[in-house]
Amino acid sequence: MAETIITVEGHFDYHHPAERGTVMLAAGFQGPERASVVSRTAQLHGALTQQAQQLVAGNTVTWWSADRMRVWSERPWNNAGAQLPLVHHASVGLEVKFSDLSALAVWVENVATLDGVTVTGIHWALTELTKSRITAEAQQRAVNDAVVRATAYAQSLGLSTVVPLALADPGMLGDDSRLFSPTGAAPMVRAMAASAQEGGLDLKPEDITVESRVHARFAAS
Q: How far apart are CA 97 and CA 24, in angstroms?
């Protein structure tokens, strides 16, 4: 009896609570006097970086970074079409990565009330150790899923023996019958970013999803 070739896609999604949160801030002012705008922005930036350094020393923050200050000017127009006096702007972006997510929530609630500070978002993530571990597990379970699918197809045809012939990342089996996978070849980590909305900033950590997809070919008899 000739063998029947079965090609399947195995997949597995691993969900894990976020372990890190990176707060993204924009700090700056605008006004008619350039020197005053730059000075106020520099003072605010100094206060925020000092807080970040203290949080690092307290082991609640793993790292922080700040962009160079941007300074620019513009002449806005009013509703009547008249050009208004020059307005000066200064802004600097900061990122602060927390390992203590409770401390993150407290800090964000405090800095969000400061004049000149805008919390632009929070990026949730895993530690590298956890990400490596669950990525390997997601890959293994995706392969197991492919075996289960192929076995089920074989049994539906009255076949009892399933032998693997090929295992590959999606799109790499090398023929025109390859399956489409929207997530790409490698396991994909999806980390949600909280952003500032009209209703406020959602400080609830998001689960991180690691998606693994594999394509496999089996001979059934």
A: 9
Q: Which residue has the higher pLDDT, 178 or 14?
A: 14
Q: Which of 215, 212, 134 is nearest to 169 (CA)?
A: 215
The predicted pLDDT at position 191 comes to 60
Cα of 11 vs its chain's centroid, Å: 21
pLDDT over 70, % of the chain = 86
Residue 7: which pLDDT band, with cuts at 50, 70 and 90? Answer: very high
Per-residue CA distances from 32 to 42, 70, 81, 88 (Å): 17, 16, 20, 6
Give yes or no for residue 187 having a pLDDT over 80. Answer: no
Instruction: Give the angle subtended at the CA of 69 by the CAs of 65 and 70, to the nearest 5°.
Output: 130
Helix ranges (H only) for 10-117 are 34-57, 101-111
Up-side HSE of residue 100: CA atoms within 13 Å toward CB?
A: 12
Do the Cβ atoms of 14 and 137 come closer than 8 Å? yes
Asked if 92 and 70 count as a contact pair (C-beta separation under 8 A), the reply is yes
Structure tokens at 155: 């049994």
> How long, in residues, is the chain?
221
